[in-house]
Amino acid sequence: MTQITLIEAVRQAMDEEMARDPRVFLTGEDVGVRGGVFRATQGLFEKYGPDRVIDSPLAELSIVAVGIGAALAELRPICEIQFADFIHPAFNQIVSEAARFYYRTNGAWRVPLVIRAPYGGGVSGGLYHSQSVEAFYAHVPGLKVVIPSTPYDAKGLLKSAVRDPNPVLFFEPKKGYRAIKGDVPDADTPEGDYTVPIGQARVAREGRDLSVYAYGMMAHYSEKAAEIVAREDGIDVEVIDLRTLLPLDKAAVLASVRKTGKALIVYEDNLTMGFGAEVAALIADEAFDSLDGPIRRLAGPDVPGVPYAHTMQEFYMPNPHTIAAAIRDLAAY
Hints:
Layout (H helix, E strand, L loop, with lengths): L1 E4 H15 L3 E5 L15 H5 L4 E3 L4 H13 L3 E5 L10 H7 L3 H4 L9 E6 L14 H5 L5 E3 L4 H13 L4 E6 L7 E4 L17 E4 L4 E5 L2 H17 L3 E5 L2 E3 L3 H11 L2 E8 L4 H12 L9 E5 L9 H7 L3 H12 L2
Parallel strand pairs: 2-3, 2-4, 4-5, 5-7, 6-7, 10-11, 10-13, 13-14
Antiparallel strand pairs: 1-8, 6-12, 9-11
Helix pairs in contact: 1-7, 3-4, 8-12, 9-10
């Protein structure tokens, strides 16, 4: 096992999949010589050449459209959208084309396409480099929506996404790219070529008093918050890292709240219509009799975007201390 950053885990996954399968190629803005704006593809252009690491025009619609066409031709494209904020011009290609091909052809055509995009705030990116877009796509049958929070999961889930026969949106918490570190099996060991199944949540921390559901950077923060309240208040929190939003691991969500009786859902997107509302609805529908308190959500405020100013950004985004405060409030019921 070697400790690496989340961004290095993403890079390793792409490198290993390209080495394993010659059909895999990368395309996106600045993914080639520059190695990506976050350096996620650094070194891959030199290793695999311009036919497999392809710099695209500044046109997200065409990045995804090329990916769909290549996937239909039995290649395995990994399309990078430089920031999740820029994915909107490709919305129709993703939602009306990629997501529906398998259904509309009665299973005759598959679209083995991966779309990677860094999402979320925390880097003083302002309105157009900080958006959380996952709720738009988690609404669409035919897509898979994956968001890792650890290097181990980032690598294993991305490898699963590349091998999946249908489209996967892989959103990466950019604030955690170099802030989150963790152990990953060495590639040259028998355990190195591992995958993490899409559609399974992870019990990040066992607990008995209260369940916290989160994903991405908020899962990382929720673990830290759980440690704070355990140390300072004696509250034993279970943290469920959802990892996959579509398909959602309903069994894991329900099993945890049935054990603890209380649920807090944490996400950095706007509160209203955010993905946490779906988790809350699931718990209300199928685990109401197990509840010992209200279902609570902690999320970003309903404003048009994450502010640029660092102080306002910190106010906007949940963090370990605001999550800990929400845990204490719910635990008091």
